[in-house]
Amino acid sequence: MVELDPSRGTRLQKVLSQAGIASRRAAEKMIIDGRVEVDGQLVTQLGTRVDPDAAVIRVDGARVVVDDSLVYLALNKPRGMHSTMSDDRGRQCIGDMIERKVRGNKKLFHVGRLDADTEGLILLTNDGELAHRLMHPSYEVAKTYLATVAGTVPRGLGKNLKTGIELEDGPASIDSFAVVDAIPGKTLVRVTLHEGRNRIVRRLLAAAGFPVEALVRTEIGPVSLGKQRPGSVRALSRDEVGQLYKAVGL
Fold first, then answer.
1. From the candidates 67, 68, 96, 115, which is the catalytic residue?
2. Does residue 130 sit in the same domain as residue 89?
3. DSSP 74-91
4. What is the residue range of 27's domain?
5. Is residue 5 flagged as an active site residue?
């Protein structure tokens, strides 16, 4: 709840400032302008105090994360690396990379597994509830891929994929499709879908008659790979974390 007792809690503008949202003076203006909610209530009083460990604070509808023990990372998994935190067969996995690049035992969950032959975006966090929701199919978090396929893609392929194709484990479909580039014998296409089944993009395109030669996941929900190089890890921005929370209703 919003705490109005001046002897308890922390002033809301101080919480926002400490979370890195804005300077204290700018945070005060956000509150006065009606841009801040606490536990679902719009707050416009500068004297408002909150419990930063318990309150759900949102600015412009996006949740503010005030727990500095929480970690949110974006990894560009290289081709050939396995999407596991450890591997009992000694194969190279993302856990090895994270152990080298992230200090301390953060007990990270990996969100968005990729097969070894696919490179691209994987999210890592110790925020268990966010990780659970991002992985759960009921929240339908979209994922975008760039796929290099063999041959020249016909005009109607996107429509067929949106309508759905029957696979061995049931029908599957995509949300959007676009041809990005074409050279003789190959086509680069962008595919967005919220399916999470194993190797779903490869299986869908193969079933449509266009086997995948190379595959990169470029986006998970509001988070984009951008120019991040394979094998690199970066911390998500506060805005990206807030948008992930919003995408899964937290």
1. 115
2. yes
3. EEEEPTT-BSSS--TT--
4. 10-63
5. no
